[in-house]
């Protein structure tokens, strides 16, 4: 189509040049031909290239946005992996629920045996199973000097494994600074891989 257009334009220009006798008319004809050729070159060559370039720039910006999002996702994933690698040894599974409870009660026994308190009851609550972890819970009732009870709280909260005191209650006895305390202590442990799969 554009080939036929070019031929038609050249024939028209030849006809115009042949029919012109006056030099002023020839100059105007040449200028007209140059303008027509410039318009043809712009519409047939330059404009399509500009459209393609604009489309490439838009596509490049879309790819840059996608790449930026991917980099951000990778940074978040790396941070999560880094945090998990630090937490993993603390919440690693030692085996079955019974083995975990046994280990947990030994840890708690190690905490309150170092202080001068009397334990009244130790009640093991059912294991709560979530998608990727288990939550072990033990309810402990003890009595002793308020300083010793506070030592138990401090040692539980600063223990190397993730032991948490979820709930606690205090009852003051008639003896000064002597209290009865009840604690709900929990620990989070990762599910064994065979149970996750």
The CATH superfamily title of the largest domain: Ribosomal protein S6/Translation elongation factor EF1B
Note the gap between the termini: 65 Å
* CATH-defined topology of the largest domain: Alpha-Beta Plaits
Tell me the Rg in angstroms.
Answer: 42 Å
Helix content: 55-70%
Q: How many domains comprise the coordinates?
A: 2
Q: Kindly provide the name of the CATH class of the largest domain.
A: Alpha Beta
Low-confidence stretches: none
Most strands sheet: 4 strands, antiparallel
- Put simply, the count of helices is 5
Strand content: 15-25%
One letter per element, helices H and strands E, the order comes to HHHEEHEEH
- On the 0 to 100 scale, the average pLDDT is 79
| Main structural class | alpha+beta
- Number of DSSP strands? 4
Oligomerization state of this entry? single chain
Named at the architecture level, the CATH assignment of the largest domain is 2-Layer Sandwich
